[in-house]
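INFO batch 0412 | record 1 of 1 | parsing
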Amino acid sequence: MKNKKEYIPGIFETQKFAPYKDDYYKGMKIIKDLNYDFEDFIQYFPCFTGHMTLGRYISLYETYKSTLGLAGHIAEVGVYKGASLLLFSKLVKLFEPITLTQVNGFDWFQGNDPEKEDPKIIKGGDTESYERLIRLVEAQKLDNLTFIHKLDVTKDLNEFFNKHNHLQFKIVFFDAGMYKVVKNALPYFWERLLPGGYLLLDQFNHEVAPGETKAIKELLPNAKIRSYQFGWMPTAYIIKE
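INFO prediction complete | emitting tokens
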């Protein structure tokens, strides 16, 4: 769960999980007080990860498994700390060691920049250091299949794809939530998403980031939008026909 100061609660979707919050933070405090070693959090992470967070990564895993055999790379728009990006990278390393599949992350690393369509998103929230994320990738020797593009997806994608016009994708994950990001970036990625590929939407039909839903309904009004049965986010996905 993200820092509770980085979003403004609403009265609809956010309330479904409100009863969990107190127990979650109490549990986190107890875990911190148990003085586990740093390595324990890495080697035995299921001991500490909440079931909703686990459901998120199972959703991403199931999506990835469904695309095995499809050509194309994986893209994430809005990488934050790199958790989903590096999960996909490690899945590629496990399941596709000799395919061409690589993982591309797109972020400007300046945090959220909402407009009126996204009133509950905090300006400057979800900010991460580009340099730290690059070091994290390199430390795990994933830099041969993980590429992080520091750019503004609302302005710079035309130049980027003109320069790298061969890039095609089998998974595109929008994890930014803001109207102008989805509105400006989705046409570039949808054009390059292969038939049978997955468009993942982290906050579709969610009051915290209504701009994402608005942009999707404008750009893909006839798309069949599905949801995961066991994961709270991503909230939806579209399989390109």
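INFO post-check: Helices lie at 18-33, 38-43, 51-66, 83-95, 130-139, 157-163, 179-192, 210-219.
INFO record closed
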